[in-house]
Each structure stands twice: as C-alpha cells, then as structure tokens.
Amino acid sequence: MTRTDGDTWDLATSVGATATSVAASRALASREPDALFDDPYAGLLVEAVGLPHFVKVARGEIDFEGDPLFGARQAIDQISVRTRYFDDFFARAAQDGIRQAVILASGLDTRAYRLPWPAGTVVYEIDQPAVIEFKTRVLADAGATPAAERRTVGIDLRDDWATALRDAGFDQDRPTAWIAEGLLIYLPPEAQDRLLDTVTALSAPGSRIATEHMDPKALTGDWAKAMTERAQRHGSDIDLTKLFYSGERRTATEHLSAAGWQTTVLTSNEAYAAHGLEPVRDELVAMIGGSGYLTAVRV
Ligand SMILES: C[S@@+](CC[C@H](N)C(=O)[O-])C[C@H]1O[C@@H](n2cnc3c(N)ncnc32)[C@H](O)[C@@H]1O
C-alpha cells in the first residue's frame, strides 16, 4: 500500500503502526533501572494494539543482539535520547511560563499523562481520529488520568486542523509550546510547509517548537530502503519506503528560519553526548549523520 491524499489508518496499520513501534521502544526503555524517562503507559498501549512483533519488543522478548543499530542497548539509548529531548523541551517551556502545549501527531505519546505540568496547563493532542480515540479509551479503561487539561483533536494534519484546534479552545494569543515528533517525513513536502506556516500563524511571540532536524540525505529514499531491510530482518513488517514521502523538501530548520524563528539544531551525536552516551556507529546512521533535533523560538 502506498500513500495517497486523504489516506487514513489506525494504530495497527500504515503510518499508525509507526506510532506503535516507537511506543514499544519506550516500553522497553522504561524498564531500565537507570532509565532516562518513565512511560508507565507505553506497554499497556502496545499490548492493546496487539501487533505481535511490537508486543514482543515492548516485553523485551526480541533478541536484537548482533546488530549494531538494533541491539537492545542501542534501541534503548536511541529512544531515550529522543524522548528526553522532547520531555526537556516541555519542561523548559513550563519553567518559562508557557501553559499551552500542542502535540502534533501525538500517536501513543503519553506526555499529557506522565509529565509534571504546572497547574493551569492545557495540552492539545492532534492525530488521526482512530488514533486519538484508541489511546483515550485504553488509558481511561486503565484508570489513567491526564496530569494537565488534555484536549484532543482527531483530524488529518493535511486538512484544516487550525480551525479544529481553535474550536477545541486553543488560544493563539497565548505563547505555545509545540512538538512534532516523528511526523514531518510522513507528510508530503507541501503539507509540511503548510503545517509549519500554520504553526507560525498560530504562534504568539514567545512560542516555540521542537521537531526533528533531517539531514537532506535522509530524504533520498536510500536510507528508508536500507533501514526497512534491516528492521525487517528483526521481524518488523513496517515498510518505510511506502510510508515516507521522500525527495526534495525544505528542511523544517530552513523553513522556520526563513519565517523569522530562531532555530537551534542539536545533532544526534551531541544529544547522545549530553547524556554521556556513546553515539551509534553504523552505516545507516552515517547515511544521515547531520540529523538531530530542532528547537525554534518565535521572537
Ligand atoms: C512515528 S509516529 C510518532 C507518534 C508520536 N509523535 C511519537 O513520537 O510517539 C507518527 C505519527 O504521526 C501521525 N501522523 C502522520 N501523518 C499524519 C497526518 N497526516 N495527520 C494526522 N496524524 C498524522 C500518525 O498517526 C502517527 O501517530
């Protein structure tokens, strides 16, 4: 199945399964004694989706050893560095007085439930309707309660999500902390530009956004193909070549800089070093060596 305008999914299919995949890694990493973050809900969400491979990953039952990228230690470090980047981003925003957060493409992200939000914070989550409904129901059934006022918006991010967000109570006159974690490569280039322009239009001064910084080499399609082949050897049946929109696109860093945001990129290697971790040495990582994380602030 290849991507089409207006395609939809749940957490077991198409792009939705990628959300289950990262949640499985979070479940695995959360069980570490010295974990860099704790996601107490990731495991139960992955179990509820029920995709056998990711259930095994979440339970730590897959033997990844022997692969320098997919070994359990490497998988744990990778998701830990990534998760902490976005957790720390929200913590700093809260310290700086921001009380409105938007999680774009929230998938099985449980930050609304697990982060220590200051009183009065409103957290919006946007994703496909089936994804939003599933997570909300499973966590409610498990007795989990959000740690902030959580408002959900089930809509496709290629559509007019700004109106839906405003209808849910979003106040564009207040500074906002936005994250788009693991989203942009799943959008066609023009939809990515439109999304960033919409974020810009909705961002009062002092707003900020965190997302991935993609090395343009990651967009050629070669990396998605090589990554898919390796992941499938370990039992994954996700085919990134069918889910990514590869080819020319402006990076979020370039786009937001041009729109007047102040941008700061932390490469993956720098992010690993900040936690005292050894960066992964692997040909797949070398292919996209300049990738990392981007924070942009609207002045
Ligand atoms: C790799 S997952 C990341 C989920 C979450 N941010 C995380 O890091 O755990 C990609 C997410 O993007 C969402 N997504 C991708 N394209 C989307 C679109 N056009 N509209 C709404 N959601 C989208 C998917 O539903 C999925 O939840």
SSE order and pairing:
Layout: H1 14-30, H2 42-49, H3 52-59, H4 72-95, E1 100-104, H5 111-114, E2 122-127, H6 129-141, E3 149-154, H7 161-167, E4 177-180, H8 189-201, E5 208-213, H9 222-233, H10 240-243, H11 252-258, E6 261-267, H12 268-274, H13 283-287, E7 292-298
Parallel strand pairs: 1-2, 1-4, 2-3, 4-5
Antiparallel strand pairs: 5-7, 6-7
Helix pairs in contact: 1-2, 1-3, 1-4, 2-3
Residues 15-16, 18-19, 22, 105-109, 127-128, 131, 156-158, 181-183, 186-187 line the site of S-adenosylmethionine.
InterPro entries: Ppm1/Ppm2/Tcmp (IPR007213), SAM-dependent_MTases_sf (IPR029063), SAM_mthyl_Trfase_ML2640-like (IPR011610)
Function: Exhibits S-adenosyl-L-methionine-dependent methyltransferase activity.
Keywords: Methyltransferase, S-adenosyl-L-methionine, Transferase
